């Protein structure tokens, strides 16, 4: 009797769904990889570079925070080689070089925080994603040393609080335990080389040198014309790659997913492999109907969907979005990559959920419509918050009416914060690209290149020593532009301090408590 033909990994109708999603969310391209048992398949849709460069299975995309699973896996492989002398319960302070690691406001946390705490986002430090980088010689050790100056959001081990700096701390620990060997070489040894991942890189310069023509352009929405898609600048190369930064293709990411599904990592023990997916902390509410509460393991989130255990993670950075998910019991997994930050995550989620439902035999659900409605609401709120920032931060009834204490030129200069570094503020003319009131002729301006993104800050005076600080990228992205609170402190006829809310990505309303204070540098 002839054996039945296995079902195609890409179900009927998926091509039409992807085309619809890309149109709906203005996503230039998506690449999908599927693993089902021993079978794998990939497809590429759309344009890697507008207007006419097609995406292929070898097109390179940033995978952003999907990098965290690589960091956790490489650490587990390294710990296996250390034969039990170091474990996930080993404290960070005992692993890292003397005095490198300290958490703000808590000697208790500094002494007790472990590798596992950092991997599970239990350190309690606020995100402070604008604090790191900014210098050509900035190192991962500098990022770790900055933690002592960065305020907490929650108490140590109180709850999950997502922290990229925690994974940079793990990166520093990995490189220290490996005798100074860089994490790129360790990824290569433990993951990339054994799996045949030949188009995966951890720096833009290396990716361009090896495969410049295969690098996708990233796209975002124009802050001035939010319906217009524009090229997003690539993230600056810097060595802070524990929490994000890997560049890969769908061909390689499908190889990686196959290894994740089957524990295809040659030096990873079964126990260490299973430990990657053991939940450590509650990470958030259910994102969709029929999803359970989200839990966080080691570089992976864990939940159930219609009673089936799922393990997943997503990633997003300026211009790119990525999503990975697998079903441990079914040995099935999927990866979706996109070159769009504005809608890329929602589009990836829509495609992934359709594939998940098809694999579980659940039929078409309502998630696609729910995701689109949620995205439209979220995007509208992002635009509205930026549009109304002045009135929201400084309501007319309570807005200071006094003029600045000093001429605007007196506020120019360098300001320093131990955790964030230097901010150089200068006077400039207001341009059409800055959403200031029409009567404002001059503003204060600062630039922060070489950080998570190339940030710019424009200070619009509203009264007294209070300013609206317009935060944006150098190319003006609707996904980043926001208005934040800013304030100068003047004493004895001189500007002494500058405070700015530098947490535009924190989902909190207590912006006064998010102020970062810089001291004026005496010149």
TrEMBL record:
Domain Beta-lactamase-related: 15-346
Database matches in InterPro entries: AmpC-like (IPR050491), Beta-lactam-related (IPR001466), Beta-lactam/transpept-like (IPR012338)
Domain of life: Eukaryota
Pfam families linked to this entry: Beta-lactamase
Family: Belongs to the peptidase S12 family.
Name of the protein described by the UniProt record: Beta-lactamase/transpeptidase-like protein
Species assigned in the record: Neohortaea acidophila
Lineage of source species: Eukaryota, Fungi, Dikarya, Ascomycota, Pezizomycotina
């Amino acid at each position: 009797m002839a054996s039945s033909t296995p079902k195609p990994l890409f179900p009927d109708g998926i091509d039409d769904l992807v085309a619809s999603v890309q149109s709906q969310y203005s996503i230039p391209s998506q690449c999908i990889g599927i693993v089902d048992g021993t079978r794998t398949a990939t497809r590429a849709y759309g344009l890697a570079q507008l207007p006419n460069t097609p995406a292929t299975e070898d097109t390179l995309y940033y995978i952003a925070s999907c990098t965290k699973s690589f960091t956790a896996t490489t650490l587990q492989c390294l710990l296996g080689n250390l034969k039990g002398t170091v474990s996930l319960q080993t404290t960070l302070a005992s692993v890292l070089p003397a005095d490198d690691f300290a958490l703000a406001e808590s000697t208790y946390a500094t002494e007790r925080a472990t590798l596992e705490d950092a991997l599970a986002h239990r350190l309690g430090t606020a995100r402070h994603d604008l604090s790191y980088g900014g210098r050509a010689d900035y190192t991962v050790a500098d990022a770790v040393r900055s933690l002592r100056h960065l305020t907490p959001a929650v108490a140590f081990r109180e709850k999950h609080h997502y922290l990229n700096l925690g994974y940079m701390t793990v990166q520093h620990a990995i490189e220290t335990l490996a005798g100074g060997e860089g994490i790129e070489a360790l990824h290569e040894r433990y993951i990339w080389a054994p799996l045949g991942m030949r188009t995966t890189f951890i720096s833009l310069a290396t990716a361009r040198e090896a495969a410049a023509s295969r690098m996708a352009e990233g796209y975002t929405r124009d802050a001035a014309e939010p319906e217009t898609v524009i090229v997003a600048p690539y993230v600056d190369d810097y060595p802070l790659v524990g929490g994000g930064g890997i560049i890969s293709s769908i061909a390689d990411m499908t190889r990686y997913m196959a290894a994740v599904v089957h524990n295809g990592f040659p030096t990873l023990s079964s126990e260490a492999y299973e430990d990657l997916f053991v939940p450590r902390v509650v990470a958030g509410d259910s994102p969709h109907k029929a999803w359970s509460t989200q839990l966080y393991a080691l570089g992976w989130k864990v939940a159930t969907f219609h009673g089936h255990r799922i393990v997943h993670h997503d990633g997003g950075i300026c211009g790119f979005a990525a999503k990975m998910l697998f079903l441990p019991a079914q040995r099935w997994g999927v990866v979706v990559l996109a070159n769009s930050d504005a809608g890329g995550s929602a589009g990836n989620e829509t495609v992934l959920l359709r594939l998940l439902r098809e694999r579980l035999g659940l039929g078409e659900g309502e998630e696609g419509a729910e995701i689109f409605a949620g995205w439209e609401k979220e995007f509208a709120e992002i635009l509205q918050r930026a549009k109304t920032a002045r009135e929201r931060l400084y309501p007319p009834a309570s807005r200071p009416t006094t003029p600045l204490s000093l001429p605007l030129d007196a506020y120019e200069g360098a300001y320093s914060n131990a955790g964030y570094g230097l901010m150089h503020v200068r006077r400039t003319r207001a341009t059409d690209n800055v959403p200031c009131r029409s009567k404002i002729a001059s503003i204060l301006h600062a630039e922060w290149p070489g950080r998570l993104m190339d940030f710019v800050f424009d200070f619009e005076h509203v009264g007294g020593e209070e300013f609206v600080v317009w935060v944006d990228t150098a190319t003006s992205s609707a996904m980043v532009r926001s208005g934040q609170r800013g304030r100068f402190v003047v004493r004895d006829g001189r500007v002494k301090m500058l405070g700015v809310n530098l947490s535009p990505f924190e989902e909190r309303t207590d912006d006064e408590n998010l102020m970062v204070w810089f001291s004026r540098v005496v010149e």
